[in-house]
Amino acid sequence: MKSFEEQNYYEMLDLTTSASPFDIRHAYKTALQIYGDDAPASYSFFSRDERAGILANLERAFLTLISDQGRIEYDRSLITAGLMQENEQYRSAPKKPIPLFDLEETGNVTRMVFPHTEKAIIPPAEFPVIRDIMSKDSLTGQDLRCIRMELGISLEQIAEIIKVRRGLLTAIEEDRCEELPSMLHLKSFLRAYAEYLRLDSNEVAARYLKQVSGGLQRAKES
Amino acid sequence: MNGEDSFINNIWPIGGGKGGSGKTFLTGSLGLLLARQGLRTLLIDADLGAANLHTVIGVAHPGRSLSDFVNKKVETLEDAVTKTPVPNLYFISGAGDNLDMANLVHTQKMRLLRAISKLPYEHILLDLGAGTSFNTIDFFLISNTGIFITTPEPTSIENVYRLIRSVYLRKIRQVLREEAFRELLQEAVMRSNGSSAKNPEDLLRILKDCDPVQGGLLEESLRDFRFKLVLNQLRKQDNHQIGTLICRICEKHLGLRVHFLGNILHDDRVHDAVCRKVSFLEKYPYTQTATDLREFCHRFLTDREENPPVGPSIEKTKAEILMTANC
Ligand SMILES: Nc1ncnc2c1ncn2[C@@H]1O[C@H](COP(=O)(O)OP(=O)(O)OP(=O)(O)O)[C@@H](O)[C@H]1O
Ligand SMILES: [Mg+2]
Q: By the 8 A CB rule, do B163 and B14 touch?
């Protein structure tokens, strides 16, 4: 067993070297739940200095891995040291747009690319804040935003991956019914959004639609 | 090996910090659930000095007790077993006389440990009380499948970490010869410039540094543990992940396997049931807490099948008892 200081950044955060940025943020959040100054789970386990040392290491690990350039350089140092294979590196999702729908109905729908392949140790649905929100039977845009922020995911990030305009996502998060697309599209955007956050996408879509349905009706009529 | 010796029982020491984390309540509840499944189960109240397990399982006046065996008033430990109103559930009381765990002399302790490991029951649950005395830890190490209990309160978590580290340290002492252990301590003091005492995990690191072979063996024997953790008296607003996170800390920083067996919700009616000397599970079977207890029992049983405990066989226990005898 290696001591904490001897572990590499991936090991510190309990990640594999192919972890996506989503995984990295998530792992860092979980690590703070374990090692944070007020974290009950590690109460009394570490001395003050040990805890401060661990937190500093974790922060360094997080900041290095979350920066594209930082990660490339760090990976290179691991590869040079023989601690990592070249083919174990994370490859980010292709940047070119990916059609969401199979308009020509050819049958080969391109599945959206979700960069996170690894199962996180704590499913997002079990974060206390998120669990509370998900226990409600209807969800507001504000609720969705809270969940996204809790997971440390920016609007840009999610917009790029699920290929939905940022403005539209903002409209969803702010319940601006008059700017929302048709029910069908809205539903699939919501599902993609929720899936990216690793939530139950059908539930999220249904509960959000329930909440905005009155507003959508009114927007349609006016 | 004679017939009696080849019986393989599963011994589950149950420990946690002081302050009523629920060791006794969980021992009684788990015992009841196991017995209801037709498993021959024995509960031993080893919380000598503060024995109260009989109240939880509805035995008003336990006749015999552990002290009768220790003081040789009965010949075999089996003679100290009391029946309970529940079929398949048996009980050895810790009440009576003022026998104290911490005061058991070495030979008494060894005789008792040996006798427990030979008892013919499928499951033996040992309510160890709150102590972290030498003797209590030796009972905890009777098998490598101890169960830790804590509540989400920082004081309780602090206690359980203290217990886990005591067990860890005691194990190091059991594995190393007394002389080697003392040398290791000296080395640790030297390295820390004579400052504060080190954590047991630092001792292992130092040993691996000085003697990689011996250190590796010790590390392996620590990996043999199949500990379990239960989080009791959780309230709705508490973080439900605390148990999982505690297990991760033990794995990552102590190299110990601790398997989380679940949360048990706090319910004021537990107190009522205990006061009225009735079984909570029987009186309130439809509460969340009762459901949690049943799930805990289920996980407890299936967890065993998935990763069979390597140590609670008589052979291993004997080997460990012999090792203990050397220190
Ligand atoms: N899940 C629960 N919900 C509510 N109360 C509980 C729960 N579990 C235990 N209790 C209460 O907590 C108190 C302490 O429980 P218990 O006696 O089992 O603890 P203990 O760990 O055996 O304590 P000790 O260290 O004194 O032996 C009891 O009054 C019991 O009623
Ligand atoms: Mg007790």
A: no
Cα separation, A159 vs A164, whole angstroms: 5
CB contact under 8 A, B244 and A122: yes
- Does residue A126 share a domain with residue A208? yes
Ligand with smallest separation from the Cα of B275 = 1
Q: What is the pLDDT of residue A106?
A: 43
**Which residues of chain A lie closer than 8 angstroms to B244, CB-CB?**
121-122
Q: Tell whether B217 is within 8 A of chain A (Cβ).
A: no
Which of B161, B241, B253 lies nearest to residue A126, judging by beta carbons? Answer: B241
Whether A32 and chain B come into contact, CB under 8 Å, resolves to: no
Residue ranges making up the domain that contains A62? 4-88
CA distance B229 to B303: 12
What's the pLDDT tens digit per position in B261-305? 999 999 999 999 988 888 999 999 999 999 999 999 999 999 865
d(CA B16, CA B14): 7
Token output for B234: 């959780």
- pLDDT of the residue at B3: 45
Contact B264, B230 (CB under 8 A): yes
The answer to whether residues A57 and A117 belong to one domain is no
Which residue's CA lies nearest to atom 14 of ligand 1?
Answer: B20
CATH number for the domain that contains residue A70: 1.10.287.110
Are A107 and A201 within one domain? yes
Q: Encode pLDDT of A156-212 as tens digits.
A: 888 888 888 899 999 999 999 888 888 888 999 999 999 888 888 899 999 999 888
Q: How far apart are CA A60 and CA B211, in angstroms?
A: 33
- Domain total of chain A: 2
Q: How far apart are CA B59 and CA B43, in angstroms?
A: 12
User: In terms of domains, do A33 and A129 share one?
Assistant: no
Amino acid at A80: T
Tens of pLDDT, residue by residue over A65-77, are 999 899 999 999 9
**CATH code, domain with A123:** 1.10.260.40
Beta partners for residue B265, in sequence order: B234
Nearest to B29 by CA among B295, B302, B309: B295
Q: What are the structure tokens assigned to B8, written together? A: 């393989």
- For residue B77, pLDDT beyond 80: yes
Domains of chain B: residue spans and CATH: 3-158+225-323 (3.40.50.300), 170-219 (no CATH)
Q: Name every residue whose Cβ is closer than 8 Å to that of residue A195 and which is 6 or more positions away in sequence.
A: A112, A114, A201
Q: How large is the ipTM?
A: 0.83
Residues A40 and A135 in one domain: no
Q: If you take atom 27 of ligand 1, which residue's CA is the nearest one?
A: B129
For residues B244 and B252, give the distance between their C-alpha atoms in angstroms, rounded to a whole number.
12
